[in-house]
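Researcher: For the annotation table, I need structure tokens for Methionine aminopeptidase. Please keep the output clean. Sequence:
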Amino acid sequence: MTYSFGHNSFGKYDIVRPWLVSGKNDVPAYIPQPSYSQTSIPDNGPEISEIKDMYQIECMRNSCKLASYILRQVNTLIKPGITTDALDKQVHDMIIGNGAYPSPLNYRGFPKSICTSVNNVACHGIPDNRPLQDGDILNVDITVYLNGYHGDCSNMFQIGEVDSEGKRLITITELCLKEAIQICKPNERFCNIGNVIEEIANKHNLSVIPACLGHGIGTYFHGAPDIYHFANDYSERMQSGMTFTIEPILSQGTTQLEILEDGWTACTIDNSRTAQIEHTILITDDGCEVLTF
Ligand code: MF3
Ligand code: CO
Ligand code: CO
């Protein structure tokens, strides 16, 4: 197998295109499934932000705890030479083994159980038979549906020796998410999430991809509120009992994405690398709780 390394002003890394995607993973009938697992069409999420009661919050805690546990296990599976398809299969089995459904599977027709976005793929990468190689950075996004509630998180992983620009991109993305979480509390405006993220990104000469939003989450995968990660003046305020994700994508170069023919894979049009990290947050009476820690 031959690998080509790109060498451009964004650093030293492989420019990735989709490889072969294998057949559908099975889900045993005893696993409770969201309705789109059959139809591919999700029920509409709420149009106004839902305030969850104690029972709903407990359900969110459980699904989020499982999602973050599975995401941590990815550390032990990921290594040079493993394909994202093999990673998808192992994670799929682990999710099923814990009595949950892998939320991406057949969501609007998505063909796999996790999203794996490598180097210049910004988000919604489909696991395929490309072996991970030295120098790759990738986002693995895990969402599980447990007891009727979704929990959603993602993190960046590094394969072997990553160049300094790749490492810096990841570090600043971590900082953006951390600082955004720190302002979350009742009565805070949602727009300040984007205002904080954009300021930090720009200060470090990185840009925020505007097309990708955080979202409310619950019995639905995506619903109100929309969370913008760029500077904005959206007027809605956070309230205790709301659950939503924050999932900024930072780019080394352009903010423009191209969706490939598979209908999912979103690449930067200048092949620059991106990094994304995601947590699901609960607003509490005196601040917030990161449900996917
Ligand atoms: N987990 C992604 C998010 O953070 C959504 C993936 S949609 C899928 O919102 F269909 F690609 F799975
Ligand atoms: Co999400
Ligand atoms: Co996600």
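Researcher: And a one-line annotation?
Model: The chain has five helices and 17 strands.
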